[in-house]
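It is worth pausing here to work through a concrete case rather than discussing structure prediction in the abstract. The textbook approach is simple: state the sequence, then state the predicted structure, then interpret. We follow exactly that order.
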Amino acid sequence: MNNRLVRFLLVEDDDDHAELIQMALAENRITNKVERVKDGAEAMDYLRQTGAFAGKPRPDIVLLDLKLPKVDGHEVLQQLKTDESLRTIPVVVMTTSQAEADKVKAYYNHANSYLTKPVDFGRFQKMVKDLKLYWGLWNQVSA
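Step two, the predicted structure:
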């Protein structure tokens, strides 16, 4: 298992969804660092450690919504996975979209996982808990 806590970057413009994700991530005894940005442009600045995010550590996992202002999630994913210094960061797409075209495009651009946010709160919490256990505890990240 990991010796250090995994750093998550949550890219989510919806405050309610972000709060639910952050609450569900915080509910377990395993505490991971979760930073949040609200649009695709901020996500790329954070990942590239520029502007207001200069000096911030790079995340170990990106939780990415697709429907974002400024730069949409598909574009963020494409930029991240074509950047030599960023492409090894796993990206979990978390979206309300069940459209096959969105899934195909996300996986074409090398998403590591595609999750559809459940409408039911209990199922949503369970999904985030399972996500945290897998990516935050069981998955091995590089030092």
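Step three, interpretation. The first strand starts at residue 7 and ends at 11. The first helix runs from residue 15 to 26.
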